[in-house]
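Long-time lurker. I teach an intro course on protein structure, and each term I like to show students one example going from raw sequence to a predicted 3D structure in token notation. This year I'd like something fresh instead of my usual example. Would anyone be willing to generate the tokens for the chain below so I can use it in lecture? Attribution to the forum is fine with me.
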Amino acid sequence: QVQLVESGGGLVQAGGSLRLSCAASRSIFSMNVMGWYRQAPGKQRELVATITSGGSTNYADSVKGRFTISRDKTKNTVYLQMNSLKPEDTAVYYCNAYERVAGLNYGYWGQGTQVTVSS
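-- Reply from a regular --
Happy to contribute to a lecture. Here you go:
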């Protein structure tokens, strides 16, 4: 089991930047994939960005070139740097972690952090 705690959300004007943090309650070395998802009102949760244990990253087309996912294994923390924010980026952002242990898959979610981008 692992707890994920997001922080860094808030209200920002269009064109601004925010950095989200996701702190895990234990080492993230065992996590196969960690990532960020978001859910806007009335919409389904969607993938924003992921990073694998090997450091490979993947981004939704809508955020490519604007968002950057990174991690600090020494701090058990994953980050999402968001630049050039747009009103359509407004959503609750969730941290996710996935690990495969002894042939079983485990997925974990944080409680979410609100990001609001004003026009």
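Some talking points for your students: The chain has a mean pLDDT of 96. The two ends are 40 Å apart (CA to CA).
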